[in-house]
Amino acid sequence: MSAIDWTIIGAYLLWIVWDGIRLSKNTSEIEGYFLASRSLPWWAVGLSVMATQLSAITMIGTTGQGYAVGMGLLQQYYALPLAMIIIAVTFVPFFHNARIFTAYEYLERRFDAKTRSFTALLFLFSRAMSTGVVISAPAVVLSVMLGLDVTATCLLMALPTAIYTMFGGVQAVAWTDVKQMYLIVGGLGAACVALMLGLPDNVSVGEALQVAGTTGRLKVFDFSTDPSARYTFWTGTVGAVFFFMSYFGTDQSQVQRYLTAKSIDQARTSLFMSAYWKIPLQALVMIIGVFMFMFYVFTPPPMLFNNAHDRQVRESARAGEYAALEQKFGEAIAARKLAAEQLAEALRANDAGVTAARSAAFNAEEKRVSGARAEAVALVKDVTGDSSYNDINYVFPTFIVTHLPVGLIGLLMAAIFAAAMSTVAGELSALSTTTVIDFYRRWVRDDGDQPHLLWVSKLATLFWAVFASIVAIYAVELGSLIEVVNRFGSFFYGSILGVFLLAIGWKRCNSTGAFVGLLCGMSVVAYVTLYTTIAFLWHTLIGAAVVFAVGMVVSELTGPRKPQSAVRIPAAEA
Amino acid sequence: MTAMGRTYIKVAVVWVVTLAALYFFQSYFTR
Fold first, then answer.
1. Which of B10, B25, B27 to mutate: most A Cβ within 10 Å?
2. Which end of chain B is more exposed for a tag (fewer CB within 10 A), N or C?
């Protein structure tokens, strides 16, 4: 990378810290620090919601997914607008009227301290680990591209984020999210245009998409009813409703975003920004992957996109085997390019018979290329011992550093940093809020001493930033542990949603019912995850349904609570 | 109907239109 690109990345990192702290106001009390004194406009909150959800893993992993298998994953987002309407009608008014800091605080008002603390603890545990992953996953890839070690790359992301989140609070998070979102969307748009311009002169964008379409990469509707299929229309529209209700309705990293809005309607409108734009934005991310596939059909790609691994294998005892594979790969690439040009010609001529034959020929060559690459990846895993190596994560960054002009490289790299930092900042702020509000202020000290609470809040932000950085730096060694934690996290995603649905929707539910339901829901989802092949997007629905059913039955058996407090928050809290 | 009620309907309509556009996209480029 050139000095200009490094300057752009450096300038971005300095500017975002300065800008975040500069825009923080009224952070001398914890309501200002954690909730921006409930004063932010809907559009800033809406962009912050989107920025928190869109991480660098989306930019790197999802574009890679579009490249390797196509746009099928897009179906996962189909239910998001529907989930947003449900959340706007149900959760948002309850949370806003309750004047709470965290979603879990509401559970104590509705049930008891035990339910609140348990759900808050589950959130802290899983979100802290996942924040580490949000840093480490892109850092591992970017470290290869930037020529830095993984620790330095992790710190390059975590340190500036920790500084502006710690000193600026949620206002710094929200206002930097806004700028970062502009940078991310601008960067993605620029990459998409560059890819379209990178196609050969004799192949139009439409023809390129039609060629990609013959490989199934543009299939965005799969109506399969197989419950183990990961991304189908049904998992995306039925299962994912519950998944998004859980994420946007009960996860503090998102709830905190819209608690900063000026009013209930502004909070609702902020969520509708995602309802309108999340599917198109995700489609843009995925179509970049498809365009990269077409770009590398006409421009010879490297056999491996991770050049560090490529070098390592070349210098190993199995270099000869690798060279033979490379020759096989090169021949397949040349044959695929020729087949693609012939297919594009047939499409231009609009001859259905010839098109079908050439489409089959192109797909056969594509299979040869994929087969050769799969053999190369297996060889890399053998030689390097990196069993979790996923070549597709390196496709987009490799395209950026090898095919984009100076300046745009720096901009795109800054956009990837921005995507990671906006997510990490939102999560650090949520972790700190939950630590202070649900544990410190609840169990240790609640004397209203604002300077003291503010000091503890900053310390909590720093603590979680250090914790996430340690997880990120040691993520490679902690690989299996993180997987266990993530899997454990998935056990209670639906179950926590079930508890909130009971709190809001079943006025006869009592604390015993909610708590027993939560434990049963987690156990059932754990069983489903470990012993069945049911796709993960159904797990949230299963968990929520079990909690709701068990909660209702246990509440009826143990004596329902007084109905009125289930639907209306006490006046003192309104 | 309240202003927010109309917004819910608008979100639902845009949702259906977005899915329809994607279906058309798939049908056109994979025919």
1. B25
2. N
